[in-house]
Amino acid sequence: AQTVTQSQPEMSVQEAETVTLSCTYDTSESDYYLFWYKQPPSRQMILVIRQEAYKQQNATENRFSVNFQKAAKSFSLKISDSQLGDAAMYFCAYRAIIQGAQKLVFGQGTRLTINP
Amino acid sequence: DGGITQSPKYLFRKEGQNVTLSCEQNLNHDAMYWYRQDPGQGLRLIYYSQIVNDFQKGDIAEGYSVSREKKESFPLTVTSAQKNPTAFYLCATRQGAQNYGYTFGSGTRLTVV
């Protein structure tokens, strides 16, 4: 079964610094998609970045980038120049296909605090 | 604007009552999902539907029921059989076979009183 593990329940970083959130996953598929979602205090889930497994190039979206290590099944999120608005829960997610149906499997989340 | 509307935002249920959470979308997305969020456990899949009049159980379907009579609507009923229903419930949609992630509603907070 596909599983997603986020080993850091909480992280904190100084404003303007860089922070990396960890995520590992388990799968037997060769082609899949990975996502990072942000959930601010409003609890609205916001897609931050996605990565296709067949692409070797790491995805980037402005200050957000990933380090995708397919062999190690690792998918970490790097946030550069951290801003107060980055404070949120961050969820790593894997797109699974189970019995012909697409589903997102989520990790437990990492709560990120930004210190001014 | 296209989006997902979940209502109500807050819901209180007495012991032994059934309650229904609403999820409506005008994105014309095919697939719809219900997730439950508890502290420290991330999001867990309750039910999902890929097309109208068809739905499947997710990982924690016991005590819940759904219907998909219209493409736009995917209501979730929390029955009295659900022993610990207090949680945050999120509805999500996905368009066809695209892998651009899911679109989420703003959620419903259900509390048993």
Break the fold down into its secondary structure elements and pairings.
The complex is a heterodimer of chains A (116) and B (113).
Chain A: E1 3-5, E2 10-14, E3 19-21, E4 24-26, E5 33-39, E6 46-52, E7 60-61, E8 64-69, E9 74-79, E10 88-98, E11 101-106, E12 110-115
Parallel strand pairs in A: 2-12
Antiparallel strand pairs in A: 1-4, 3-9, 5-6, 5-10, 7-8, 8-9, 10-11, 10-12
Chain B: E1 4-7, E2 10-13, E3 19-25, E4 31-37, E5 43-51, E6 54-57, E7 64-66, E8 76-78, E9 87-94, E10 103-104, E11 108-112
Parallel strand pairs in B: 2-11
Antiparallel strand pairs in B: 1-3, 3-8, 4-5, 4-9, 5-6, 7-8, 9-10, 9-11
Please characterize this protein's 3D structure.
The complex is a heterodimer of chains A (116) and B (113). Chain A has 116 residues and is mainly β. Chain A is 0% helix and 56% strand. Chain A is built from no helices and 12 strands. In chain A, strands 2, 5, 6, 10, 11 and 12 form a 6-stranded mixed beta sheet that branches. Chain A has a 4-stranded antiparallel beta sheet with strand order 3-9-8-7, with no helix packed on it. Chain A has a two-stranded antiparallel sheet with strand order 1-4. In chain A, a hairpin with a 2-residue loop joins strand 10 and strand 11. Chain A is globular, with a radius of gyration of 14 Å. Chain B has strands at residues 4-7, 10-13, 19-25, 31-37, 43-51, 54-57, 64-66, 76-78, 87-94, 103-104, 108-112. The model of chain B has no long low-confidence stretch (mean pLDDT 92). In chain B, strands 2, 4, 5, 6, 9, 10 and 11 form a 7-stranded mixed beta sheet that branches. Chain B has a 4-stranded antiparallel beta sheet with strand order 1-3-8-7, with no helix packed on it. Chain B is mainly β and 113 residues long. Helix content of chain B is 0%, strand content 50%. Chain B has no helices and 11 strands. At the A-B interface, strand 5, strand 6 and strand 11 of A face strand 4, strand 5 and strand 9 of B.
